[in-house]
Amino acid sequence: MRVMPRTGFVLLSIALAAIVPGTIAEAYSDKAFRAHPAAEYAHQISGHVTIGAKPYNSEGLIAEVFGKKTDLLKYGVLPVLMVVENKGQKTLDLRALEINLVSADGRHVGPIAPEDIQYLRKTSPRATVTPLPVPLPRKKNPLSAPELTTRAFAAQMLPPGDSASGFFYFEARPEPGDKLYVNGLRNAPNGPEIMYFEFPID
After folding, report:
1. How far is the C-alpha of 107 from the C-alpha of 98, rounded, in Å?
2. Using the 8-state DSSP alphabet, how is residue 74 labeled?
3. E strands, 87-194, where?
4. Whether the Cβ atoms of residue 78 and residue 123 lie closer than 8 Å to each other
5. H helices within the chain, ranges in order?
6. DSSP label at 117?
7. 60, 74, 127, 191: which one has the fewest Cβ atoms less than 10 Å from its Cβ?
8. pTM, to two decimals
9. pLDDT by residue (tens digit) across 129-185?
10. Thinking of the domain 36-127+141-200, which architecture would CATH place it in?
11. How many Å apart are CA 81 and CA 179, to the nearest integer?
C-alpha cells in the first residue's frame, strides 16, 4: 500500500489551526442566548400569562450575555431579562407594552432604546483632559455591541402556547426592593387588557 506524503496535510493542518480558533471564538460570541422558563425567575401569574424577570446586576452576569467589554453597570445601565409565556388559547398582543422599573420608594423609570445606549457616558466623574496636538485613534465604543440590540425584547405578538424573552435596559442602579411593572398586554385582536403585573425582581 502506498503511503502518501504527510507534508501537505501538515501544512493544511497549520492553516486550519490558524483559522479554527477565530472561528470557534466567533461562533461562541454568536451563540444564541437561551432564557429559562419564566417560573425559574422572579415571576407573577395572571390567568394564562406568566411573566418572569431577572436583573443582570453584576459584571459576571452581563459578561455572559453581552461580552466582557460591555460593562453596562459602569454606564449606569441595568439590563433586565423578561420572559413572557402565553398558556392560553388566544394570541397575545404585546405592541402596547408599558414597562417600568420601580424602586422601593416608588420611583419609576422606563427603558432606554438599545440603539441609544451607545451614546451614554460613564457615570463616574470625568477628569479634565488637555487636548493633544496629534489626535489619537479612538477606542471602539464598548456600548456598541450588537448583542444589545439582538437580545433586546422585540416580540409584538405571542401565539398560544409560545413564549418570548429579551432584555430591557434601564438607566438605573440596582437597589434592594426593585420591582418590575408590566402593563398593556391584551388578547388579539382588540381583546380586553390583561391585569397589570408588578412583582419584586431583586
Report:
1. 15
2. G
3. 92-93, 98-102, 108-109, 111-112, 157-158, 163-171, 179-183, 186-187
4. no
5. 7-29, 59-66, 147-150
6. G
7. 127
8. 0.76
9. 334 454 444 566 778 889 999 999 999 999 999 999 999 999 999 999 999 999 999
10. Sandwich (2.60)
11. 13
